[in-house]
Amino acid sequence: MAPVVPRFAADLRVQVTSADADGVALTFDDGPHDEGTPAILSILSRANARATFFVIGEQVERRPQLLERIVAEGHLVGLHGYRHRMQMRLTPGQVRADLERGAEAIARVTGELPRWHRPPYGVYSPAGLSAVRAAGMRPLLWSRWGKDWRKFTTPQRIARRVLGELAPGDVILLHDADFYSARDSHRRTEAALQLIMNTLTERKVATVLPV
C-alpha cells in the first residue's frame, strides 16, 4: 500500500525510499525469467547501472544460472517469496515457511541469505512483516512504479509514470518477468527501461542500491 498511502509504511517502519539520496534505486520483481532478465541485465550493463532484483524462489530453482549472472554483474538480490502469493491469504506458518524456502533457494546459489525482502503485490500481513524482521531481512517497498504488469500499457506510458516527479532517493518498481502478470509484459518493460535509462543519463541521475 506504500504508493497509495505512504503513511502506512512510515507508521510500520517499512522503507519505501533509498537511504542513498544521491540517486534513484531501480528494482525488478518476479524473476529470474529466461528472456526478461537477460534483456534487463544487458540494458543495465550498457548504462553501467546497478539494480536490485527481488526474485521468486521457485524461479531461482529453475534458472539458477540467471541468479548467478545477476550477482556476477554487481546487482543486489532480495527475496520476493518462494511463491508469488498474497501474504494476507496465508497463515502465519505458511508465511514463515515461504520465507525460509525462498531464502534457502537464494542462498544455495549465492552462498548468502538475502538481506532485503519485498512481498508479492506489495502487501504485508502483520505476521509476514514480523517474520521478515525475525529472519533478519529488511522490508522494502517503493515510491515510484511503472505499472508495467498491465496488459494494455505501453513502454512510453511506463516510462512517464516512472519519470514524472522523480526525486533523489526514489525506489522504482518494475518487473523483469511475466509469470504473474500480463503475457509478454516484460517486453514492454525492456523497452521502457531503455527510455528510462536514456533520461536518467541525460539528467545525470545515478542509480544506487537501497542501503
In words, what does this structure look like?
This protein is an alpha/beta fold. The protein is 42% helix and 15% strand. Strand 1, helix 2 (36-46) and strand 2 (51-56) form a beta-alpha-beta unit. Helix 2 packs parallel to helix 8 (185-203), helix 5 runs parallel beside helix 6 and helix 7 (155-163) packs across helix 8. It is globular. The mean pLDDT is 95.
Number of strands: 8
The run of helices and strands is HEHEHHEHEHEEHEHE
- Structural classification: alpha/beta
Average pLDDT, rounded to a whole number, is 95
Computed CA radius of gyration, to the nearest angstrom: 16 Å
Q: Determine the number of helices (DSSP H or I, runs of at least 4 residues).
A: 8
| Largest sheet geometry | 6 strands, parallel
Distance between the termini: 21 Å
Strand content: 15-25%
Helix content class: 40-55%
**Poorly predicted segments:** none
Give the quaternary arrangement of the chains.
single chain
* C-alpha geometry: globular
The gist of it:
With 211 residues, the chain is of the alpha/beta class. The chain has eight helices and eight strands; from the N terminus they run H-E-H-E-H-H-E-H-E-H-E-E-H-E-H-E.
